[in-house]
Amino acid sequence: MISFKSNKPVVSNVIANNGLNRKVLITGAENTLARFLAYGLLDAGAQVSVQAVSPDAFLALKPNFPAIQHSFADPRFSEMLATLAPDIILHASAESPRENSAQAPLGAFNRIVEKTAVLCDVVRRNSPGTRMVLMSSTDVYGECPVAKSEGAPLAPVSMNGRYFAMAEHILQDFSNYYNMKSTVLRIASTYGPAVKNNPVCDLLFNLLGPQGTNIKFGFDPNATRDVIHAADALQAVKLILSNPTEAAYNIASGHSMTMGELNTHLCSILDLTNTGSCGSPTFIEATHQYFDVSRIMALGCKPQVPLIEGLRGYAAWWSGMKAA
To answer: What are the structural domains of the chain?
Structure first.
């Protein structure tokens, strides 16, 4: 079902001039980063509606957004899409732990590839003027011992990376054949309050997770990761949605550090003994991640959240969540 708030957010002249006075539909809002972006874009003055099939996500979002619970294949979704006529659809894949892509590849294919194809077809038939913005992943690049720009060949090594590359190709096909306006966001490891399934989340689980269990996320302390705070990712998304350019963008910090360094920072913040390596990773992914952010910086984006401050806030959120 879909419901509408009677009081739409007031849009300032500044926001309107920056292009944020847009109708944005966020699909796959089960995704915790997509949910973070929904609230951030709403605060920025966008008219945000959401789609989430999961009952828990739908009920959590419904009080604050016009909400759709129908799947893309449901004719009722097509009817509601035609009624909403959003300027932009920000499409995220419903979230699942990263290792599940290897353990349940068919489910991952459905979440990332099939749903992107179905949504593209629904949009081109029912809302052809809508700009599709795909939340992809920097996993599409594979190994990145040096900074990879958006023009680098895609050579994914993980199941997630391969599927996101397929989703990007599908979106490009619809753009080419049906003149669909499209943009791709290649998002690096993003952490922040309520944002899950990222390396920082895994490390915090190892340090603060349920006691009395042997559940641990194995990690290579020498593996490198580019991590970005969700608030900085939101800044980048707002700029991209304000800019009509159809392109791919890396959303990352532009810096790379080892998992061991991240773990040391978290141990220092939490005043815990450094636990070091927790063994080998449980699924295949790139060992090195490092991304060129020149294109997004050219739009005026510059990360604002210092790493230690961001990690401290994320650890505080995690501790509060455990205590609740």
So the answer is: 13-323 (3.40.50.720)
